């Protein structure tokens, strides 16, 4: 009897499978409370997105934009997360995510949140996928479908990235800045160039679309070999766009024969 907002309910819920249009979860357990028109889920655990999901939720059906979700995603598949968000970036692997999301959960990508992200097998979108799987950790914020990296680092075979910051939009990176240290060969091969070898320290900013990236910055390489030219050291500004590398303000020391 009475209005729904006046009802009170408390229960422990367990179900072997819960299916929604966007997500299937198995072995779901949760503490459920309904009070004053608000649904509260606590101590939630489930197998979903290829991994384990734990968290809590506060949702008022009359005000869906005020929903608040705290969660831990333990080794969930990035491909499954992309399908849930409705946004395909092209990265693959598994991630551990802890954080909070606020907003209408019917459109996860449009929410606002802050998260810590870790991965031990992250493969970046093409063409950087050619670097192979890497290890990353960092802090990020989500706002209306765009991820802002506020501090991250990563390591791929032959290449280390630090001081990573910038924006990741669905169409591509915006002002994504990083310091890279490592072998130039793997980096050059991501853009189809196999005549470059040496070790470099690079400070770069990447923009563009995921399928048409452009980078600019400054590099110091020692030693360096490009095709048949060997240098003891090179320092230069660079711009890489449309598969063309342009160097400026070059200072080079020729290799000794």
Draw up the topology in text.
Elements: E1 8-19, E2 24-35, E3 38-48, E4 51-59, E5 68-77, H1 78-85, E6 94-102, E7 112-122, E8 134-143, E9 146-156, E10 159-169, E11 172-183, H2 184-190, E12 196-209, E13 212-226, E14 229-241, E15 244-254
Structure description:
The chain is mostly beta strands. The chain has helices spanning 78-85, 184-190, and strands spanning 8-19, 24-35, 38-48, 51-59, 68-77, 94-102, 112-122, 134-143, 146-156, 159-169, 172-183, 196-209, 212-226, 229-241, 244-254. Strands 1-2-3-4-5-6-7-8-9-10-11-12-13-14-15 form a 15-stranded antiparallel β-sheet. A hairpin with a 2-residue loop joins strand 9 and strand 10. The longest helix is centred in the first third of the chain and has 8 residues, at 78-85. The N and C termini lie far apart (94 Å). The model has no long low-confidence stretch (mean pLDDT 89).
Q: Which short descriptors sum up this protein?
A:
single chain; 257 residues; mainly beta; 15-stranded antiparallel beta sheet; 2 helices; 15 strands; 6% helix; 67% strand
């Amino acid at each position: 009897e009475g209005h729904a907002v006046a009802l009170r309910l408390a229960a422990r819920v367990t179900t072997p499978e819960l299916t929604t249009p966007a997500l299937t979860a198995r072995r779901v357990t949760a503490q459920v409370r309904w009070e004053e028109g608000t649904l509260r889920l606590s101590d939630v655990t489930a197998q979903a997105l290829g991994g384990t999901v734990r968290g809590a939720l506060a949702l008022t059906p009359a005000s869906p934009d005020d929903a608040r979700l705290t969660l831990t995603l333990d080794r969930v598949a990035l491909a499954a997360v992309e399908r849930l968000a409705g946004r395909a970036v092209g990265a693959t692997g598994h991630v551990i995510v802890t954080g909070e999301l606020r907003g209408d959960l019917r459109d996860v990508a449009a929410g606002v949140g802050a998260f810590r992200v870790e991965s031990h097998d992250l493969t970046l979108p093409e063409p950087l996928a050619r670097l192979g799987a890497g290890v990353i950790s960092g802090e990020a914020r989500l706002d209306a479908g765009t991820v802002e990296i506020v501090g991250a680092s990563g390591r791929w075979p032959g290449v280390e990235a630090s001081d990573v910051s910038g924006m990741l939009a669905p169409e591509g990176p915006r002002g994504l800045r990083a310091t890279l240290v490592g072998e130039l060969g793997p980096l050059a091969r991501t853009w189809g160039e196999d005549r470059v070898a040496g070790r470099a320290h690079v400070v770069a900013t990447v923009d563009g679309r995921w399928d048409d990236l452009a980078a600019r910055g400054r590099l110091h390489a020692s030693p360096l070999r490009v095709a048949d030219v060997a240098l003891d050291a090179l320092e230069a500004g660079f711009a890489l766009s449309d598969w063309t590398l342009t160097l400026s303000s070059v200072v080079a020391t020729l290799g000794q024969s």
